[in-house]
Amino acid sequence: MASNPKKKKDFISTQDWSREELDRLLDITKDLKTYPEKYRNTLTGKSLCMFFYNPSMRTRNSTEVAAYQLGIHPTFNSIKDSWIGYQSESVKDTAKVLARYYDAIGIRIFPVSVNWIYKEGNRILREFADYSDVPIINFEDDQFHPLQALTDIYSIKEKKGDPRGKKIVISWAYHPKPLPVSVPNSILLITSRYGMDITLAHPKGYDLDSDIMNIARNNAKEFGGSLTISNDINEAYSNADVVYVKSWGALKYYGNAKDEKQLRMPYRDNWRIREENLDFTDSNSILMHCLPIRRNIVADDAVIDGKHSIVYDQAENRLYTAKALLYDLLREKE
Ligand code: CP
Known about the structure:
The model is unreliable at 1-5 (pLDDT under 50). This protein has 2 domains: 14-144 and 316-330, Rossmann fold (3-Layer(aba) Sandwich); 160-311, Aspartate/ornithine carbamoyltransferase (Rossmann fold), CATH 3.40.50.1370. Helix 6 (146-160) packs across helix 13 (311-330) and helix 7 packs parallel to helix 8. It is an alpha/beta fold. It is built from 13 helices and 9 strands. The protein binds phosphoric acid mono(formamide)ester. Phosphoric acid mono(formamide)ester binds at residues 56-59, 140, 148, 290-292.
């Protein structure tokens, strides 16, 4: 039985949610992490459609377990074994039919599934949202990864307290191939909503989407943070409270990995994250990565397993934020 359409709210980008709504999700996350039994089986009888155009480990498993613990029945669908829009069947038909069965629908759609046409994955998700009477949850599209962003700000608060005025470096790192920009876009948007002083560190040519940068600048203005760009890794890391490592592809060569390679290869050594880079940060800084990560290519073992790293706690928090989101979207509200 589908939820009441009047109560439907989608989770496609954190930017679509107000600060008060995001704070509510973070409060629920903290509460259910502290008191899991209070939430167990509170949503029995609800159902969640999870469908993946692309592979996943954390998003799939954290959401599936989160649903199970709340009493929700999750089903996994992939393009290998389902007729799932938008190629075999229209988005409209898929969304309308699935909304008759489920109480929420989660979708992952990467750039490769939309021929690297930038923002096409996000456009398709929003089309699903237009036709679906139940909430659409973004499991990562080509622009945003809001469940990851929610986890990231929760993890920062958990480890460092109030994020306001704390310095975060969103650091590009070398990776053998160009990766989507959804995670850097999302961490930029969420940390600028929480008043952090952000340094976006990347080599020349790896600028993020100017529209996203403008939104982040406006967020920073509204919430009392700042946003600077640095092409010098050690200068960027100086006195940082949080280092968030993530590789991404150059937008200028979006979908053209062959030509992009010429740009990225010279950065293979200088932008591989090493212990020495972290020496420039605050002694109590935390090192974050959304995972998966290619060890000793993107960052050294000594970094991932080092004293600053919180990557496993961060990954664990995916379970709690997924659970908080499902709880918030599907509980009966007054
Ligand atoms: N961080 C993250 O989204 O991981 P998966 O791709 O394994 O879901």
